[in-house]
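Bug #77: duplicate submission created two jobs. Keeping one. Sequence:
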Amino acid sequence: MSDGVGAEPADAEPRSASGERHTELLTDAILGARREFTSYEIAAAADVPVYRARRFWRALGLANPEEGAAEFTAADGDALRRLLLLISDGIVDESRALHITRSLGGSTARVARAFVEAMLDPLPPDADGAERTFAVGTEELIRALSDMESLLVYSWRRQVTAALPVLQRRGPRSSIAVGFADLVSFTHLSRQLSDRELTSLVTRFEERAGNLITAYGGRIVKSIGDEIFFAADSPSVAATIAHRIAENVKRRRVPGIRIGIEYGPVITHGGDLFGDTVNLASRLTAMAAPNQIVVGPSMMVALATVAGFEIHPLPVTDVKGFGSMTPGVLKACGR
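Kept job's structure:
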């Protein structure tokens, strides 16, 4: 028997149960319908084996629901049928469809998390250890969904039009300039700063570096907290971007930065870039001193006739996986 100390009143609902039901209701409101179908029922409606339906579900980055759980709406079945129609009509094969689905799931997952974090603004636990609560935002989130969906479609179409000329100019292994911009001493900073301060630092870095990359004609391949991977069709554009980022960091409340760039052939796959050129650019970034831009041999040759920059060769260096080479430090003329 319990002595009653710390016990919930008999008519009180445990906080966790209340929170779970709130999440369930919120989920149905976001999905726009009550979840009433199992994965077997959704697969049967689309006339495909359940394992095949689950393959696309997992490709979206979503965990399989418990066996027999009613976790799906009619919209899930409609999405599956549309995807299968692309395959049956010969527009894409199943492998490409899965690849596109993975890319879509990964991209929208990040957008969704950022949206929910911004809208719900979670509060820290109470002094007595109560669960995290949400200050405001649930109603605002529901109201904002429609507008955000329109914005998502708008951004999708704009990004597709932006990607077309890039792919038309390049073959599967065309040469471009790729670079990495890394915050200096990020591991140390992550131990010294509060969560809020660290988030603010990363946000400032991503916003400022990202704005400069796109403003000068480059594109962000991916961003991982303290590092931004970018690309540009020409070495001069990549050099300008790197110089502007480094100059901006010096003037802002952002710690030092290291940048490494190389020019050469890359493999394009799923919106990402791979290959020796990318790997070397990453190695060069690790070699750079704080607030320094290090470029590889091919980038040095490509910039030899470009006005506005000068390159100071470094000593011969043994680069892991690439052997001995002579990289250089990139500076704007007169700096």
